[in-house]
Amino acid sequence: MNIEPEQCKSAFYVFDVAELKGRIDYLRRILPKTVDLCYAIKANTFITGELIGTVDRFEVCSPGEAEICRLLNVPENQMVISGVYKTPQVMDNMVANTECNRIFTVESINQFQLLKGLSEKYKKNLKLLIRLTNGSQFGVNANEIEDIIANRESYKHLDIIGIQFFSGTQKTSLKKLKREVERLDKLLLTLKEKYGYTAKELEYGPGFPAAYFKEDSINEDELIGGFSQLLLNMTSKPKITLELGRSIAASCGKYYTHIVDKKCNKGENYLLVDGGMHHIVYFGQHMAMKQPILSVCGKETQPYSDIWNICGSLCSMNDIISKQVSLPPVEVGDIICFENTGAYCMTEGISLFLSRDIPAVYIKRNDGSLVCVRDPYETYLLNKPNYRKDI
Ligand SMILES: Cc1ncc(COP(=O)(O)O)c(C=O)c1O
User: Fold this and answer.
1) I need a surface site. Which of 6, 142, 160, 256 has the fewest CB within 10 A?
2) 258 and 217, same structural domain?
C-alpha cells in the first residue's frame, strides 16, 4: 500500500473493502446455499456501511450501535436488536418509533415480559428470537423456552420466529460445534414434538476463529466445511442465519504504527512505536508472548536481522505489543503493519489511558484509494474534569 504523508502523522487502521467482500464470497461459497449471514457489528462498526447489500442482517447490541445503523441507513428489517440489557425506555422508544419489522432477541424472562407489554401498548407485532443460554449470564433455559412456546397463542402481538444461540468466540473445535448443533437440533425437535411448534429460524453464532499469531494454524476449509455438513445434517431443518463478527471482519483490517525510537537496554532491544495497547488488542494474547502476524512496510522481503520487543507509547510497562520479534533492519520512521486486525482489535483497547489519541481509520476502496472515515481523535477532553459551578 502507498502510504501518503497524511497517514504518516500517527498510527492508523485501514479496512479493505475488496478483502472484506472476498471474505463474504468465501463464506457464501463454503456454507450451504440456504444459510444467511448476519454481521455482528460489535466486531467493527466502521465496515457496517460497506456490508449493506452484502450480508443479510446486522446484529445490533446497544443503543449506540442502533444509532450507528440508523445513521448508515441500515434497513430496519435487516436489524436484529440484541444485547443482554436494554433499558425499558430504550426498548419503548424502539417499539414506539419504528415500523417494528426489526427482530428482537429475548435474553431473559423480564425482557420477554417487557416486549410483550410494549407490543400490547403500541399494538405492534414484534418478531422475537429467544436466546438459549449456554450456561452463562446470556439467554434463558430450555425449559423457559418451552414455557413461552407452550403459551404462544396467548401472546397476540408476538411472533416467536425461532431460537438464537451464541456460546463463545475463537472456536477451533469441530467436535464442540457438533455438540452445539446437536443440542440445538434436539431443542427444535422437542418444540415440534411436544408443542407442534416449528421454528422458522435458527440464528446461530458459531464463533468461527481468526488467525492472529504466527503460530495459529486454522484449516478453515476443514472447519467451516465440516460445520456446513453438520448444518445440512440437522433433522429439524430450520432456516439458518449465522451471526458472525470476527470471521467476517478480521481479515480486512490492518493496523499501521510508526517506529519513533529504538534502543538497547541491558542487552534487550526495544522499538518504541507511536501506537500501543490502547489502539490494538489481540484475543488470546497473553503478556505479549505470542507473535502477531506483522511486517515492516517496504521491507517485507528483506531477511530478518535482529530481535526486538515492540512497545507502545503509553507510560506503562504493560504496553508491549509483542516480545522477541525477528525483524529486518529497522529505522526510526519505518512503519510496522499488523495484519488481520479488522475485528475487535481496535475497539477493545483501553483508549482513554494516558489521554493519547485514538487512531485514524481509513476505508480502502476497490480502486485502491483510501478514504479517511475518522481523523485521529484527541481524548484529553474526555479525561478532563468539567467542574460545574454548583460543586
Ligand atoms: C450474540 C452474539 N452473536 C455473535 C457474536 C459474534 O461473535 P464472533 O465475533 O465470534 O463471530 C457475538 C460476540 O460477542 C455475540 O455476543
Assistant:
1) 6
2) no
CB atoms inside a 10 Å sphere around CB 300: 9
Ligand 1 pocket: which of 169, 208, 212 to mutate (most atoms within 8 A of CB)? 169
Q: What is the pLDDT of residues 143-153, one digit of tens each?
A: 999 999 999 99
Over residues 87-109, mean pLDDT? 92
- Identify the domain containing residue 369 by its residue range: 5-12+251-383
Q: Give tens-digit pLDDT for 123-171.
A: 999 999 999 999 999 999 999 999 999 999 999 999 999 999 999 999 9
Structural domain tally of the chain? 2
Pocket around ligand 1: residues whose beta carbon is below 6 Å from it? 40, 43, 59, 82, 166, 169, 205, 207, 243-247
Q: What is the CATH number of the domain that holds 142?
A: 3.20.20.10
The pLDDT tens digits for 359-385 are 999 999 999 999 999 999 999 999 988
Residue 188 has pLDDT above 90, yes or no: yes
